[in-house]
Amino acid sequence: MVVDAERGGVVMATPNADRTLSAWPAHRSVALLPGSLPQGGIVPDTPIHAFVAPPLQLVLRADADLRPIRHDIELGGLLAFEIYNLLTAAEADAVVEASERFGYRDEAPGIATPPGMRLNKSVHWVTDPESLGPLFERMAVLLPARIDGMTLHPRLSERLNMYRYDDGDVFNRHIDGEWPGFSLDVERRRMLQWPAHLRSCLTMLLYLNGPDDGVQGGDTRLYRPDGSAHDVRPTKGSALFFRHGFGPQSIQHVGRPIRGPVSKYVARINVMYAAAASYPGSARPTGSGVD
Predict the structure, then answer these.
(1) Which of 145, 166, 212, 234 is packed most tightly, with the most Cβ within 10 A?
(2) Which of 204, 252, 254, 245 is nearest to 226 (CA)?
(3) What's the pLDDT tens digit per position in 12-24?
């Protein structure tokens, strides 16, 4: 189901704010999906958001004087790695501020998790090529060119599934689902689902703050096939990548609990791959995935 400005309304920017870098555009709902609650139950018509125009605060440069570095994680033959130095501190802070402008909820739209698994807060929104295009360019040479016969697609899905972990919040052991890609229509009123030959193969967990900001705990624990584990400390501006879906190469993981007054912020972004054979069809109105 989709919603436009007349049905969903537009949340306006601060009155009398001039169009400087500090002024954020208004935002609206671009899709409504059933939202699952942490302890079970569904909230109908949970919104997915977008700004009515690309925010200047989220426009990235491909050459931001960062030097991304890949570090492979030994996980018993499963694919997992970190890439450091993907965002500046200011860029990471801007993503957090954008997410708080939409507002976090207990329910997560289009996500199916059993009671007691996802115990955090969620907001989903659709961003722009001006943000994710340069981010992809910063890391493209460090990503696998092919996975399972599929070729790396030169564009990240533009739906950001963001999570805020407050004191005591946790995302218990689970496997991430495979997702289609998403983006906005040209009028920025609807979320569109990409054609079926484009599928996600990798989860990208983009860490937007960490211990230097006062975050206590919140490591991501990855499990090897033998049951042993490797913990990844959230590092602001860096990202963790691993296989997802429901095949034998997918990685079970936990978002470990947060302790103390500083919340942890993380964005799940899907890295997209294209099947060798092209399928007919174009982007269509919204669908959902399963986490």
Answers:
(1) 234
(2) 252
(3) 444 333 334 569 9
